Amino acid sequence: MRTWLRTFALVEHRLARPEPRRSYEQFVQGWVALGAPNHLLEFYAPPGLRGTIVERAWAFTDRLLDELVRVADIEHHKLLIAVMPFEGAVSGKQLPPGYRADVPDERLRERFEPRGIPVVPITAELARDPERYLPFIDGHPNAQTHARIAELIEDRLVKLGWLAQW
Fold this sequence. Notes:
Elements: H1 2-16, H2 24-33, H3 52-75, E1 81-82, H4 87-91, H5 103-112, E2 119-120, H6 122-127, H7 130-133, H8 143-160
């Protein structure tokens, strides 16, 4: 698994940071040219439009998050969930018809808020003003986007009473 992850990271790094810099569309084309399907987009598909790989990935993610909740309960820790979006979800330009940028946030909100675990909807906030928060840098949010994400999480923590307001 570690070898695969290292290999994936090297390939992703090479595709994400070539000279000259490629657009997101060129990144996806290069990724698919290597024989890798773009399953990342399927995480933004509503049920019924997702493939088997993404359904299995969601099931695995659910098990991991359930274990995180179990351990947090045992240790008496508070838990807050926030989805770090990818650039295509913020711009909305790469999403195929029927796909929605808020699907991961909604899925986690439906799963965890009834259990008393708050979910911070980051994607929708960033999508309100994509020109302000894009482009990401090699697939990672830029400094301004990180600052906004931190503000959203801080605001939620203050509203929950988990963090004193400065």
